[in-house]
Amino acid sequence: MDIIHLLPDSVANQIAAGEVIQRPASCLKELVENSLDAGATRIQVIVRDAGRTLLQVIDDGIGMSEMDARLAFERHATSKIREAQDLFSLRTMGFRGEALASICAVAQVEMTTRRAQDETGTLIEIHGSDVVRQEPCSCPVGTNIKVSNLFFNVPVRRKFLKTDQTELRNLLTEFYHIVLVYPKVAFTFVHNDEILLELPVGTEKQRIEAVFGNPKRNVYTSAFVEVHTETEMVAIRGFVIKPENATRKAEQYFFVNGRYMRHPYFQKAVMTAYSGMLTSDYQPSFFIYFDIDPEAIDVNIHPTKTEIKFADEQTIFQILMASVREALGKFSLAPTIDFDTQGNIDIPLPTDQPVNRPQVVADPTYNPFRTRGTIYPDLAPANWESLYEGIQNEPINPITPSIPSIPNNEDLPMWQYGAKYILVPSGQGLLLIHQHRAHAAVLYAQFMEQLAQTQGASQQLLFPEILNLSQDEMVLIGQLLDDLRTIGFELEQLSPDSYSIQGVPAQLANQSPIPVLQHILTQVRERGANTRQEWREQIAWTLAQNTAIPTGRVLTEPEMRDLVARLIALPQYRRTSDGKTIVSLLSDDELAKRF
Ligand code: ADP
Ligand code: MG
User: Fold this and answer.
1) What is the per-residue pLDDT across 501-520, written as a single tens digit (0 to 9) for each?
2) Test site for ligand 1: of 41, 58, 100, most ligand atoms within 8 A of the Cβ
3) 179, 486, 510, 584 - which has most CB atoms within 10 Å?
């Protein structure tokens, strides 16, 4: 029996329209979700050149009949819903019946598929919506779909793709969203012939470990405690990190009925449960799975289906917060470290502890338009003495001695260590400068200056990006709009719950603006910023964090010199605005003691 039928237009219109395939990652998501909907137990993903050249998904699902293989590529062809009514009781991932139609319109697709009851399978080849071949073939049960040369007939789209590294990261992010909810399905992910992930069937916990459990990401399931609550309204289970294992960059995942979701309001519930247990910019990692009656959620408010509206969000907020709190409390994890005896180790501080911000003074010689390749090539001759004077006046910490001045010497040697620190010799020892924090501090001052007086340089986006927001975020962004525009974001409200981003601050040029704007909103909310000045500080701080040269970047000597000169031109440069050490001294005395 053929199982695919066409959706009536009335139903199609009830389904929020949206561009389905924006990049390789969205294509991968649709293909893998189809395999899952087809009941696959083993799914292989094969990618070449971050999906530009090839995206292949092989499954052992139910396969398709000859007729279905052809129909599957028609718009609104789906085997998953027949009436609008069905939308409310959805249990499958896809339902619009437009993914394959969209994919085959912008790529060269070759698919082989066979159902268990059929002796022969079907091969179908479609190039830009034209069927170029359909014939019987012999193939295993299941579906093997190869999407080659994505956007081959839409050159602008193709050009718009980011670097392979970024697109691969996007592919993996989509992949994580899926594999974390299907631990009973085995997955592999191969990129350019290298197996990046091999995920055997297991429990949720084993799956999290298999995906993230490596020393680099610092996410081990042993670092987590389990959350488990069942009420009439909702069942919540999952894992939340012990506060002492929190890091700056967290893995935060919510899932509802087997689907990844973004939910800033529930994220706030988790953050609230941690309040008092983390330093201000430490984030808790969590993997939280909700099970709820599908009638109590609306999966369809957002075209990419990651925003989900719950019928009674306030109650669930309370339940979630209480269950996370209980899980953390059970293990009595409140910090008990005696701050006075621990030197300058990074100790989680309560979030409500006031953070001393440096007073920001703008550098009037800085001209953001005059960049010539290095970080700050337009630099005026640096006042190197100030580096030492500054530190001399203010000892780095009570334990380290103050630093004597050393000759003003522009030829001072500098080295980079571990692609993370810049080492500069001084009269009494070695200065260690944290490159990322140094650059962030410099940028912070610049952004604050721009916010106070000038218009930031904006770069037009070739394709506007859409920022979808929840209601509270819409309110928040309204308050920040003037400052966001001053700093270079060109934002226009598109609908009651979205903005289009047409331009971004020049410094952001090759980064996706959406996560950055989201980060700004989260930051403003979590720091409880509610004056104009505080909003500006959060905008400047977030942009600085996101655009500063990262740890891991190898710097040339002129770049190091420029950065250090910029840094020492700041009135305060020993610490970042959130109190992290930027410059530290390894004194000659300390060195001598080691020998
Ligand atoms: P949707 O998933 O929204 O129904 P798609 O365009 O993604 O729409 O797929 C259209 C139809 O093709 C699906 O409803 C399903 O019947 C069939 N199909 C797609 N991929 C597979 C697969 N991997 N295995 C079996 N059937 C598939
Ligand atoms: Mg689908």
Assistant:
1) 888 888 887 778 888 998 89
2) 100
3) 179
